[in-house]
Amino acid sequence: MSSMKNKRFNLLLIAVVTLVAAWSLWPTWRDYSLSKQLKSFGSAQDSLKYALNHREEIEDARKKSLKLGLDLKGGMHLVMEVDQVDLFEQKAWNKDAKFAAIMQVVRTKASKSDIRVIDLLVAEFRNENIRLSRYFYDIRNSDQEIVGKLEKESEDALNRAKEIIRNRIDQYGVAEPVITTQGSRKIIIELPGVSDENRVRNLLKGTAKLEFRVLREPEVMIRTLDRINSYLVENRVVAHAAPVADSSSSVLAPVPQTGGSPAQPGSNSSSAKPLYDVIGVFQNGTAYTAEHTKEFVVSLLHRSDIQALLPPDTELLLAAKPEVGKTGEKLYPIYLVRKSPELTGGVITEAKATFGSQGVQPEVLMSMNSEGTSKWARITGANIGKRIAIVLDGAVYSAPVVQSKIPNGNSVINGIESLEEAKDLEIVLKAGALPAPVRITEERSVGPSLGADYIRAGMQSLAWAFCAVSVFMLVYYKKAGIAADIALVLNILIVLSVLAGFNASLSLPGIAGIVLTIGMAVDANVLIYERIREELAEGKSVVSAVTQGYDRAFSSILDSHVTTLSAAFLLYTYGIGPIQGFAVTLMIGTSASLFTAIVVSREIFHLLLAKNLMSDKSFG
To answer: At residue 353, what are phi and psi to the nearest 5 degrees?
Structure first.
């Protein structure tokens, strides 16, 4: 009776393990099928529509599928550095020319050294014989207290940057990223499977500082540009050699400027209008600059003497994306906005990339928390008929006219070129703003072709190992070899399903661990089968020989597997990177081998014996 209960339990256990393994590996198969489906479309538009309609299904399958490591899938290795000089500048409350000079020296030294920025900062203040409390925190704080606070800010900024970067990467969909900190300001990132490297760079570097700012009136914009132009004339500043556009390519008719004559974009023959050689002003009071003059205009607008000519609490910002003129030339709008934002991105609770009402232009829908909703209602109610710029990282994404009060806290960012860009914007808004700018200091890429070669070589080694072992077992142990091969297949499925279920990645060392697992699994079967052969040689029945063989081989199998598990655990504990990948698959494989050798193959024998399909010749 007890034997019957054990048999039922074993069969139930095998069925459960098999079903769980299949369920865990189903997303991997689904991800493969959906990827093939996406590639099968003839046009990018059809592919985008399919991706949008099946977005949740694709993301869910990708998230739960078996991940491949950087060495197999290809990808990027990045070292990013948090700009802690900028962080400390943000924390200062009393900034003057002396402070700016000190921070510039600190920045220069930090760029040439890995010494902690806080140590460089303290050393520079001591050289100048200035107390830190002159610029940081409370005037009554000692230098030691301020250093402690700044160290805490530095540590928090690094950890926050790490988590925000992780959130962005997770939402982007990179499988099993490795993100660690190094020292006081560096973050090490490994991203397997990344193909669009430029997109990832932009996603990681953007600080995601979102602001809603009111635009100044068109007449204020025109007067400001006139003032800058007059200043350039008085100081004999020559504008960029290349004009904005030919006079024939004006998008709209130019607006007459102060002084009576129109400012023709491209009228660089007149030295009286150096600014309007690179900037055009049109009927709606919006200024534009061409793509080939953009960098010059940006550098010009960032000059301190030019900024001093702007109205108080204002600055000139360029659009994030260009508009296309009648002749196809890309023109970047320039906006005069208030420097103080009406609202910041900290109130955003949800962001979603989608298509606009026409179903063509991508956009991002945003929702706000209760505080943001009430503020947004007040801001929009007070600025009906005016334009509010949506500014992200210092660039204007859109500047819609407020038609009416918005009481529900919803808003839209448009002016986006592609759905991918909209998704990236959704990601950075959801993840939040970085505490300080980050920059990429080191980058290495593993090409997908090299990764594909590694996959091919790894799979070939796995296939050859499996085939060689399977054929050997069939030839040497006859029918008993079939049971061993079935157990071996289940063993590999269990290893892969556990890796997929725990979101672990399969790397090249991991494949080596699976190959070694195949050897371990067969070794257990060989021990059992040789014991059964010894029992048969003594004249015992097949049923008795199988029972005795398993019972007597159990202690030897358990010892060898526990020893292997212990060694793998030590490798995982004290190893790094590839060694840990090898150790993980070896631990999973060894545990699975113990289960398949002792339970699975035994139940297969019991099934065959019950149907009289085994004899003493079944073991070779």
So the answer is: -80, 135
